[in-house]
């Protein structure tokens, strides 16, 4: 899914240089159609988030920040991300290492299984968690006996978010690890380095950009996850409400000002994610050019 | 390969029974986080008798939800096939102001939380919104109709075709096109006969990925649609409504159907990508 921004540009310039065949009006028409389509589907809706949020000025916008439910939603969103992102980063690193450093039958199958969360609807993911940990679920009676509450509470929201974002880090790290090869690691091994030293000093520096890319995508998805979390949270205001759930709740209550205020925060998160993505893509493509 | 430093295990002796730490973590995590939930869904589905399963899976409400979900997703993915190809072409072949910015913005649907996408789409396409107010005099209503579901699916599946075509377009040799022109082919003939065939595998992959994403989309659609059965209710929202009514059997059956279809699509995408790789070699 990555575009090589930098090398792409060089190619584009070369191509554009030799592209004098088309009549200028064809070129302008094609660019025009592309821009109009993107405006209708993408740019106008994105711009609209900010316009709506500040429609009645800055005062009402900041007034929303004094709403305790809003503050709690921010807090919970950040808390879940702080828990899920590290866990999935560790898993992603382990899975990528295990898959790339061993040749075994069924590798393709394992990679496909890891990709499974991408294929299921978030509602189905949430449903699975309910059927596993819910009161009438598979482990329900056991959990009840131990007096552990998972569904309609924080643990279920963490589990659902972790499920949805499981593949990101592994997917980004696998190709980088394969490209890096094993020579340096084996050299370090013959020089007597310990496993964790090899990982820390040889493997990690090689894969750091791919890893960071995966971490950023994981974080964006965790903070923005709506469907799965909505199923398992019970959406109790001020207790189990993340920012995306707050957006929907405010919209349902016809408090569009509050809904857009929360949306601006999430839209800024998306913009920061895109900017970081772009920077990382340039970094990796520069490396490829070298 | 990693041998624990305390007790060197002769790997040659029992390679079967030695697992390194990363393996242990991977297997444990995947078992608890991935396989158990999937197993829970299938186990619950197995408690429903086949006759009842079939009855729920093919009830009129469910059939109408599949129709809204899959048919709308196919239409959205096809529309994006056309416009995605155009956008990829424009971004790779031409230079124009703000190109860099537009290229980066294509990924916005990946990064923007779906609830926000739904909220802003419903506000832009409602009868008082920027675009909706222009369509209202023509008698076209988008928000709270199936058309709105389509618009949300267009938004969510937009990046896939563009991103899968861009690298292939960059690799494409312009000499071949020039050869075609010098032999007297028109631009349109050249596009159909020379440019499009090598793009086809990547294009199909992009369409399949976008379709799969549109089928699974929930957050933006639940906000932009009226979620009324037989009108614009999608399968994911139907599952959610069944859960709200504590109808676990109904939610499980429809969830299982949706999961199996998603798995089929996933297998299809993997086959497509294998075919693509062979094509490239």
From TrEMBL, chain A:
GO CC, alphabetical: plasma membrane
Keyword Transmembrane helix: yes
Alphabetically ordered keywords of this record: Membrane, Sulfate transport, Transmembrane, Transmembrane helix, Transport
Subcellular localization: Membrane
Record InterPro entries: CysW_permease (IPR011866), MetI-like (IPR000515), MetI-like_sf (IPR035906), Sulph_transpt2 (IPR005667)
Annotated transmembrane regions: 28-54, 74-97, 109-134, 146-169, 257-276
Domain ABC transmembrane type-1: 74-277
Function: Part of the ABC transporter complex CysAWTP (TC 3.A.1.6.1) involved in sulfate/thiosulfate import. Probably responsible for the translocation of the substrate across the membrane.
Subunit organization: The complex is composed of two ATP-binding proteins (CysA), two transmembrane proteins (CysT and CysW) and a solute-binding protein (CysP).
Protein name, UniProt field: Sulfate ABC transporter permease subunit CysW
Organism encoding this protein: Chroogloeocystis siderophila 5.2 s.c.1
Lineage: Bacteria, Bacillati, Cyanobacteriota, Cyanophyceae, Oscillatoriophycideae
From TrEMBL, chain B:
Compartments in which it is found: Cell inner membrane
InterPro entries to which the protein is assigned, alphabetical: CysT_permease, MetI-like, MetI-like_sf, Sulph_transpt2
Protein name from the UniProt record: Sulfate transport system permease protein CysT
GO cellular component: plasma membrane
Residues spanning the membrane: 21-43, 63-92, 138-162, 191-212, 218-240, 252-275
A GO term, aspect molecular function: ABC-type sulfate transporter activity
Keyword Transmembrane helix: yes
Membrane topology: Multi-pass membrane protein
Function field: Part of the ABC transporter complex (TC 3.A.1.6.1) involved in sulfate/thiosulfate import.
Subunit structure: The complex is composed of two ATP-binding proteins (CysA), two transmembrane proteins (CysT and CysW) and a solute-binding protein (CysP).
Keywords on record: Cell inner membrane, Cell membrane, Membrane, Sulfate transport, Transmembrane, Transmembrane helix, Transport
Family to which the UniProt record says this protein belongs: Belongs to the binding-protein-dependent transport system permease family. CysTW subfamily.
ABC transmembrane type-1 domain: residues covered: 66-269
Pfam families: BPD_transp_1
Primary location group: membrane
Organism ancestry: Bacteria, Bacillati, Cyanobacteriota, Cyanophyceae, Oscillatoriophycideae
């Amino acid at each position: 899914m990555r575009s090589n921004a930098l090398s792409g540009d060089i190619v584009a310039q070369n191509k554009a240089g030799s592209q004098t065949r088309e009549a200028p009006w064809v070129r302008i028409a094609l660019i025009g159609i592309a821009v109009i389509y993107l405006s209708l589907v993408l740019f106008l809706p994105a711009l609209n988030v900010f316009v709506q949020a500040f429609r009645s000025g800055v005062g009402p916008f900041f007034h929303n920040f004094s709403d305790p439910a809003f503050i709690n939603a921010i807090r919970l969103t950040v808390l879940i991300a702080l828990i899920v992102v590290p866990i999935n980063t560790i898993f992603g690193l382990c899975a990528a290492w295990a898959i790339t450093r061993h040749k075994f039958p069924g590798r393709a199958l394992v990679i496909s299984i890891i990709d499974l969360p991408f294929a299921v609807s978030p509602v189905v993911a949430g449903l699975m968690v309910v059927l596993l940990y819910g009161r009438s679920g598979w482990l329900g009676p056991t959990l009840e006996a131990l007096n552990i509450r998972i569904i309609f509470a924080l643990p279920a929201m963490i589990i659902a978010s972790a499920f949805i974002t499981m593949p990101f880090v592994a997917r980004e790290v696998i190709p980088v690890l394969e490209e890096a090869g094993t020579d340096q690691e084996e050299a370090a091994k013959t020089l007597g380095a310990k496993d964790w030293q090899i990982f820390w000093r040889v493997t990690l520096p090689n894969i750091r950009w791919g890893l960071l890319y995966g971490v950023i995508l994981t974080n964006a998805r965790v903070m923005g996850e709506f469907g799965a979390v909505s199923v398992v949270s019970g959406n109790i205001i001020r207790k189990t409400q993340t920012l995306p759930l707050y957006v929907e709740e405010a919209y349902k209550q016809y408090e569009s000002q509050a809904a857009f205020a929360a949306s601006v925060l999430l839209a800024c998160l998306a913009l920061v994610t895109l900017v970081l993505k772009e920077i990382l893509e340039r970094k990796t493509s520069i490396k490829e050019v070298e | 390969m990693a041998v624990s430093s305390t007790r060197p295990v002769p790997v040659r002796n029992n390679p079967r029974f030695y697992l390194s730490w990363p393996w242990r973590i991977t297997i444990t995590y995947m078992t608890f986080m991935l396989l158990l939930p999937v197993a829970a869904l299938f186990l619950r589905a197995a408690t429903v008798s086949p006759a009842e399963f079939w009855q729920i899976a093919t009830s009129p409400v469910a059939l109408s939800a599949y129709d809204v979900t899959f048919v709308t997703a196919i239409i959205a993915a096809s529309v994006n096939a056309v416009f995605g190809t155009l956008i990829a072409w424009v971004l790779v072949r031409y230079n124009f102001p703000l190109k860099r910015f537009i290229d980066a913005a294509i990924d916005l649907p990946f990064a923007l939380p779906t609830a926000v996408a739904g909220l802003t789409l419903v506000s832009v396409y409602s009868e008082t919104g920027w675009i909706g107010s222009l369509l209202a005099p023509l008698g076209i209503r988008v928000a709270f109709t199936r058309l709105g579901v389509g618009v949300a699916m267009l938004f969510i599946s937009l990046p896939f075709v563009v991103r899968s075509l861009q690298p292939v377009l960059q690799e494409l040799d312009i000499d071949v096109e020039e050869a075609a022109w010098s032999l007297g082919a028109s631009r349109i003939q050249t596009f159909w006969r020379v440019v499009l065939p090598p793009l086809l595998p990547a294009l199909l992959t992009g369409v399949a990925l976008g379709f799969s994403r549109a089928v699974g989309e929930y957050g933006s659609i639940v906000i932009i649609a009226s979620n009324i059965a037989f009108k614009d209710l999608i399968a994911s929202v139907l599952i959610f409504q069944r859960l709200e009514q504590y109808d676990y059997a109904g939610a499980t059956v429809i969830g299982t159907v949706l999961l199996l279809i998603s798995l089929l699509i996933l297998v299809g995408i993997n086959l497509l990508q294998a075919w693509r790789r062979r094509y490239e070699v």
